[in-house]
Design goal:
Blueprint: H1 8-19, H2 23-36, E1 41-47, E2 53-58, H3 65-70, H4 97-104, E3 106-112, E4 119-125, E5 128-129, E6 133-135, E7 140-146, H5 153-156, H6 162-179, E8 184-189, E9 192-196, H7 203-214, H8 217-220, E10 222-229, E11 232-239, E12 244-245, E13 251-255, E14 258-260, H9 263-272, E15 282-283, E16 285-290, E17 296-297, E18 308-309, H10 312-329, H11 336-346, H12 363-378, H13 385-399, E19 405-410, E20 414-419, E21 422-427, H14 428-445, E22 451-461, H15 464-472, H16 474-479, E23 483-486, E24 491-498, H17 506-515, H18 526-540, H19 551-563, E25 577-581, H20 582-588
Helix pairs in contact: 1-4, 2-6, 9-10, 11-20, 14-18, 14-19, 17-18
């Protein structure tokens, strides 16, 4: 078959398939054009998941007749001042979005330049352009896309349901709203209107916009992130490890204001949360990276969803370290969502005589509760006045600490502590597990892990495969203070254990390590595998649930938590404590 040049309409349809994959792709291109035009207000209306109608209106600078005629031509753009394709400071630049949309749908663009007396309109249907004609419009631009992919029906077969396409459109706009909190957005779809009001570009404005997108919990459960190295600046918000999600949809990454899904950045985020999140959980974060445009290539993907850094190791290291520093600083904060759920579920809405405004409306029921409470209180042995006087100075000093003073132990598992303005419930095993793990990490970094030799070496019987796997890892285990060697067929001999663990069951420890040995990935750096082993070891060296603690032991654990980094969650990502403010407690009893 001879070589021939394709007709322009066929070329445009091919380009449409590369740039416009689904309605969300078209919305992304149109909204980015609106932002680049200096809009402070963008309104998006979709129908049928975007297949029937997409309308994007803005109050940007608009276009004159000459620009309007050129904007629907291929490779025509106002986003490049020169031929330097690395000096990109705008969101859109390829110059293919509008002609691609026009080749696959019925496109109309109405615009009015600032200061102009009249508005203009042009239409493109299946690649055929109409003449420019007058229109009625205030300053700005309105783009309508109807019957998307009517000219390329094969593409319609690959679209998902209306609900799925609508969700994709909303997700695209959410990411753009986070990129530009100084722009107000309105989305109308399926008789539902979502509004994102104008916010500031400072930390408070970004936090407010993140709360708009994710929910009000985000403001109270994120910590600021800020770092700079060799001309690369990082800022944003990172969610507490206990404020995690079941998927990665709440991870928002931006490079020079452009929303991206970059593998380097996603991997760096996993590294920053490496030993803070349970497997299968994903952090909430909005991270903004600013760097010289020449240090990043944004033209590696037709939809501009990926970027390529000139020095990816620099960017990755910056993100990992910044996240670790930010999370260690906010590690002693507990996610508010746990307390909110507790207050919600504990509210006695099904109790007899209860109503949301029960003060004064169910006095007999309250009187019965009061009498029962008083009777129960009188049966409790109260400390003498002298004992209370002796305890007062110590308790008052501890009350003013972040985790307060220990008051009781429940079910030999949970420590209840009183603070100045509420109470804290601590999972003693989870908390001590994190403390031991952080000590192991610190000792590992300093090459100062002490060991204790067993008076009688422990013989642990295992499957031959587990024995072989442990022997291969013997060098790594020795670095963490666990010294073992093969002992005949189907057994290993444990000679030393980490001194940090104190008295520990060496047999259970080794069996647990053998059970999880498949999780250690040889492709990962040695440091990551050592931390995985340290996590398992620390679990066995921690205070177990079911152990009764003395008051001084409980308070010592609370003070150690306050000195430990990342003490807000255990090695598996579960919270180590839940905090209830006095306001929340009063809500439980209808006082608020």
């Amino acid at each position: 078959m001879p070589v021939r040049q394709l007709p322009e309409n066929v070329v445009n349809r091919i380009a449409a398939g590369e740039v416009i994959e689904r309605p969300a792709s078209a919305v992304k291109e149109l909204v980015e054009n609106a932002i680049d035009a200096g809009a402070t207000r963008v309104e998006v209306l979709i129908s049928g998941g975007g297949r029937e109608l997409i309308r994007v209106s803005d109050d940007g600078s608009g276009m004159n007749a000459e620009d309007l005629a050129l904007c629907v031509e291929r490779h025509a753009t106002s986003k490049l001042d020169s031929e330097d394709l690395l000096n990109i400071s705008t969101l859109g630049f390829r110059g293919e979005a509008l002609p691609s949309i026009g080749a696959a749908a019925r496109l109309s663009i109405a615009t009015r330049a600032r200061g102009s007396d009249a508005a203009l309109e042009i239409r493109v249907e299946g690649g055929e352009k109409s003449a420019i004609r007058p229109a009625a419009l205030a300053e700005g631009t309105r783009v309508e896309v109807r019957d998307l992919f009517y000219a390329t029906p094969a593409r319609l077969k690959f679209l998902k349901s209306e609900q799925a396409e609508t969700a994709a459109v909303v997700d695209v706009i959410r990411r753009l709203t986070l990129a530009r909190p100084d722009v107000a957005f309105t989305i109308a779809a399926n008789e539902r209107v979502i509004q994102y009001p104008l916010r500031g570009t400072d930390e408070a404005g970004r936090a407010a916009r993140l709360a708009d997108v994710i929910g009000g919990d985000a403001r109270a459960n994120t910590v600021p992130v800020s770092a700079e190295r060799d001309g690369v600046r990082l800022s944003g918000l990172a969610g507490l490890p206990t404020f995690s999600k079941a998927n990665s949809l709440s991870q928002y990454l931006f490079v020079n204001g452009r929303p991206v899904r970059d593998k380097v950045l996603m991997g760096a985020m996993r590294g920053g949360y490496a030993d803070l999140l349970h497997s299968g959980r994903y952090p909430v974060a909005a991270l903004f990276i600013e760097l010289d445009p020449h240090e990043v290539d944004v033209n590696v993907h037709p939809a501009k969803a990926e970027v390529r850094f000139r020095d990816p190791s620099l960017v990755r290291g910056l993100v990992v370290r910044a996240l670790q520093d930010a999370l260690s600083g906010g590690a002693r904060r507990s996610a508010t969502t746990g307390a909110d759920r507790l207050v919600s579920f504990a509210r006695p809405q099904s109790a007899p005589g209860y109503s949301s405004g029960w003060r004064g409306s169910s006095a007999p029921y309250r009187a019965g509760l009061a009498e029962a409470a008083q009777a129960a209180f009188e049966t409790i042995a109260q400390p003498s006045a002298d004992a209370r006087a002796d305890l007062a100075p110590v308790l008052q000093a501890d009350l003013e600490r972040p985790l307060g003073a220990a008051r009781a132990q429940l079910h030999e598992t949970y420590i209840v502590a009183q603070t100045v303005d509420g109470l804290v419930i601590v999972d003693q095993h989870a908390a001590h597990e994190r403390i031991v793990y952080e000590k192991l990490k610190r000792a590992l970094n300093e090459n100062s892990i002490s060991t204790q030799m067993l008076l009688v070496p422990a013989v642990v019987e295992l499957d031959d495969g587990d024995v072989a796997a442990l022997v291969v890892r013997a060098g790594q285990l020795a670095k963490l203070g666990l010294v073992l060697e093969p002992f005949g067929q189907g057994a290993v001999l444990v000679r030393e254990t980490p001194a940090l663990l104190g008295e520990t069951d060496a047999q259970n420890l080794v069996r647990d390590l053998a059970e999880h040995i498949a999780e250690w990935d040889d492709a990962l750096p040695l440091e990551r595998n050592l931390l995985a082993i340290a996590s398992r070891i620390s679990c066995h060296g921690s205070i177990r649930a079911g152990r009764r603690l003395k008051p001084e032991e409980m308070n010592a654990l609370l003070r150690e938590m306050e000195r430990t980094e990342n003490a807000g969650q255990c090695n598996h990502g579960r919270p180590t404590y839940v905090e209830l403010k006095l306001f929340d407690i009063e809500k439980l009893f209808g006082r608020r």
